[in-house]
Design a protein that fits this description.
Elements (H helix, E strand, L loop, with lengths): L4 E4 L29 E4 L12 E4 L17 E4 L4 H9 L2 E7 L5 E8 L8 E3 L2 H4 L16 E3 L2
Antiparallel strand pairs: 1-3, 2-3, 2-4, 5-6, 7-8
Length: 151
């Protein structure tokens, strides 16, 4: 969604749901903010419900942050190169698609790219490797390092 987020992790290129492991503890009170380029865990209305889905913030989304100790979306990394690619993904035409969920059944998805988009490479880098990039070089979300999304 342009200006908001690009989300991934739940479905393969054929919109078949990927199996996931147990949900993880929500760590949205870690002080990290859902700013442009930050990478966060996607969850449902339940605080500790994040599994395999994640998103990249395309704008500063303070509505997704923890407020007064209430759970938000937990930031765990940031994009240090390739935001132009994510902006292009968000600008691609979208629509509704029917997806198969693990265990059978289906669900209607909204705002899904009409053409398949696949991120071919995402790598974890250290704060030293991040120096000289188009963003701050500090590591956020220890022990995680910033991420780079490349063509």
């Amino acid at each position: 969604m342009p200006g908001f987020i690009v989300q991934a992790g739940a479905y393969d290129a054929n919109f078949v749901g990927r199996p996931s492991k147990a949900p993880i503890k929500n760590e949205s009170t870690n002080g990290l903010k859902n700013l442009r380029g930050s990478i966060s865990m996607a969850r449902d209305q339940t605080a500790n419900s994040a599994t395999s889905q994640f998103f990249v913030n395309l704008g500063d989304n303070d509505s997704l942050d923890s407020v007064d100790g209430e759970a938000g979306s937990a930031v765990f990394g940031r994009v240090i190169r390739g935001m132009d690619i994510l902006d292009a993904i968000a600008a691609s035409p979208t629509g509704d698609k029917l997806a198969t969920v693990p265990g059978g059944g289906s669900v209607q998805l909204h705002n899904v790219p009409l053409q398949t988009v696949t991120i071919l490479s995402a790598q974890q880098v250290t704060s030293g490797e991040a120096k000289g990039t188009d963003g701050p070089a500090s590591v956020i979300g220890a022990p995680n390092s910033p991420f780079t999304i490349e063509r």
